[in-house]
Design goal:
Pfam family, one: Metallophos
Distance between the termini: 13 Å
CATH superfamily of the largest domain: Metallo-dependent phosphatases
CATH class of the largest domain: Alpha Beta
Order of helices and strands: EHEHEEEHHHHEEEEE
Number of domains: 3
Binding site for Mn(2+) 2: 16, 54, 89, 170
Largest sheet: 5 strands, mixed
Keywords: Cell inner membrane, Cell membrane, Hydrolase, Lipid A biosynthesis, Lipid biosynthesis, Lipid metabolism, Manganese, Membrane, Metal-binding
Number of helices: 6
Domain Calcineurin-like phosphoesterase: 8-174
Radius of gyration: 18 Å
Strand content: 15-25%
Oligomer: single chain
Shape: globular
Strand order of the largest sheet: 4-5-6-8-7
Family: Belongs to the LpxH family.
Number of strands: 10
Length: 220
């Protein structure tokens, strides 16, 4: 953040920045540190954008106001040095995982989030711990293919947004996929996770560079 992003024209965070974001009222030292880092970045003049992931879908307007970030829609088109791209977290592309999509639809209901944000902090932590445990158990019974994106849905979203470049995360399978869509060479770039290493897509006017590096190695 301090050595790389400070020099960027913009920073886009495509969700799952946190293991689980319980709410914008999180005042733990870790949450406060993250707020301060983003605030310092936006104060320096770097536009910073955030798309909610499946682990931080409760990150909202209060956090963005405190940090100076802009909260984007689930699916958003942007201009990357003259090339139109669609960016998203990526979980909405995994339509073969019907059970997850039903869960996602439920937890994104405004009335449910409104209610959750108004219960005591210690109760929220217990609920989240139970949800995380259930999710871990559920994943053990699913095939990797079901938890990956559906190619037909990828093509539908790209066609709908009139792009030949898509960037997303969620699946934790960093890669660059090249395929043909409507007779045109098309690219889908997948970001990796941030458990044991960092995963960053650096973009300039000449290049798209997907980098996976250990945390103790400075990005170049």
């Amino acid at each position: 953040m301090r050595s790389e992003a400070i020099h960027a024209d913009a920073l886009y965070v495509l969700g799952d920045l946190f293991e689980f974001w319980i709410g914008d009222d999180d005042n733990t030292p870790f949450a406060s540190q993250i707020r301060n880092e983003f605030k310092a970045l936006t104060d320096s003049g770097v536009p910073t954008f955030f798309i909610q992931g499946n682990r931080d879908f409760l990150l909202g307007k209060r956090f963005c106001k405190e940090t100076g970030m802009t909260l984007l829609d689930d699916v958003c088109t942007i201009d990357l040095y003259g090339q139109k791209a669609v960016i998203l977290h990526g979980d909405t592309l995994c339509i073969d995982d019907v059970k997850y999509q039903e869960f996602r639809k439920t937890v994104h209901k405004p009335w449910l989030q409104w209610l959750f944000n108004r219960i005591p902090w210690f109760v929220k932590k217990r609920i989240v711990a139970k949800v995380q445990s259930d999710i871990r158990d559920d994943k053990q019974t699913k095939s990797l293919d079901i938890m990956d994106v559906n190619q037909g849905e990828v093509e539908r979203v790209m066609s709908q947004n009139c792009v030949n470049l898509m960037i997303h995360g969620h699946t934790h399978r960093p890669n660059t996929h090249i395929f043909e869509l409507n007779g045109v060479k098309t690219t889908r770039i997948v970001l990796g996770d941030w458990y044991s290493q960092g995963s960053v897509l650096k973009v300039d006017s000449d290049n798209f560079d997907l980098q996976t590096r250990p945390f103790d190695t400075e990005l170049k």
